[in-house]
């Protein structure tokens, strides 16, 4: 990637991107972080957009980051809600909570990348405890399809177990 082109892209569009993100997330600090992360992601991709596509490309990256941030907040809120029903002495340490949240975010990312029926099958089986027949009826697919979806979902989650 051309360093001069990256600098030019930043100089030409950073203020606009920051302003757009600030309106989107409503927080100056979060917008600054997301704008920074957008450029980091752009540099990591090692691809410069065409000049007439710069804002659209940056906005696409930023939208993805906003969605990721929102999902992380939802995961954290659900985790904290789960903890709130436990006596405080049973709460994990701050370090353990951070590890659990990081793991949950990784699981969420893996599941989010799956096709919707595969993801839904996995969640219905593992979290709602439905049988394959019940899942098949709910999703209007065959039990054989449910089996295939589960294999695909479990296979996708295997790298997380190896960590």
TrEMBL record:
CDD domains per UniProt: Sigma70_r4
Matching SUPFAM superfamilies: Sigma2 domain of RNA polymerase sigma factors, Sigma3 and sigma4 domains of RNA polymerase sigma factors
GO molecular function: DNA binding; sigma factor activity
GO biological process: DNA-templated transcription initiation
Domain RNA polymerase sigma factor 70 region 4 type residues, every copy: 105-157
This protein's UniProt keywords: Sigma factor, Transcription, Transcription regulation
Regions annotated as coiled coil: none
Residue ranges of domain RNA polymerase sigma-70 region in the record: 9-73
Cross-referenced InterPro entries: RNA_pol_sigma-70-like (IPR039425), RNA_pol_sigma-70_dom (IPR014284), RNA_pol_sigma70_r2 (IPR007627), RNA_pol_sigma70_r4_t2 (IPR013249), RNA_pol_sigma_r2 (IPR013325), RNA_pol_sigma_r3/r4-like (IPR013324), WH-like_DNA-bd_sf (IPR036388)
Entry similarity comment: Belongs to the sigma-70 factor family. ECF subfamily.
Name of the protein: RNA polymerase subunit sigma
Organism of derivation: Bordetella genomosp. 10
Lineage of the organism: Bacteria, Pseudomonadati, Pseudomonadota, Betaproteobacteria, Burkholderiales
